[in-house]
Amino acid sequence: MTSYKIRYLPTFEKDLEDALDYVALHLQNPTAATNLLKETEETILERLSAPLAFEPYYSKKERKYPYYRIRIKNYVIYYVVIENVMELRRFVHSRRNIGNLI
After folding, report:
1. Average pLDDT in the 29-52 region?
2. Which of 88, 75, 79, 87 is nearest to 36 (CA)?
3. DSSP letter, residue 18
4. Alpha-carbon distance values, 36 to 3, 32, 47, 81, 86 (Å)
5. Which CATH number covers residue 78?
6. Residue 9: inside a domain, yes or no?
7. How far apart are CA 52 and CA 58, in angstroms?
8. Cα–Cα distance for residue pair 60/85, rounded to 1 Å
9. Which of 15, 61, 68, 83 is a good FRET partner for 101, with 20 to 30 A between their CA atoms?
10. Contact in structure between 19 and 36 (CB atoms under 8 Å)
11. Range of the domain at 10
12. Residue 102 falls within a domain, yes or no?
């Protein structure tokens, strides 16, 4: 059984920070932001045990590594698996046009 590590790209970290700020400050709901962060962390750790066991996200772009998705509330995490690393690349609202972002 392969043991996977997590790598957070700066784009993922910025996306997550922006989403949490939006919920906490713009929507004035810091509790919801805290809950979103907690659920995001828990879901990532759950997926880490078998990140390749899910259907890849197919796009029109040719990619060296296929993207996978994790849905959390109104958001989607996009990640790739490179050897034994689950690389988290984007954290975006589900209504955004992802074709321009990944």
Report:
1. 97
2. 75
3. H
4. 26, 6, 16, 24, 20
5. 3.30.2310.20
6. yes
7. 14
8. 24
9. 83
10. yes
11. 5-94
12. no
Strands across the sheet with 85-93, in order? 5-8, 85-93, 75-82, 68-72
Query: Any idea what DSSP says for residue 96?
Result: S
Mapping DSSP to helix (H, G, I), strand (E, B) and coil, where does residue 44 land? helix
Which runs of E-coded beta strand occur in 1-102? 5-8, 68-72, 75-82, 85-93
pTM: 0.90
Residue 2 has pLDDT above 90, yes or no: no
Sign of CA dihedral 97, 34, 13, 21: positive
Query: Which pLDDT score is estimated for 96?
Result: 67
Nearest by Cα to 12 from 77, 65, 73, 69: 77
- CA nearest neighbour of 88 among 32, 56, 48, 55: 48
pLDDT of residue 91 exceeding 80: yes
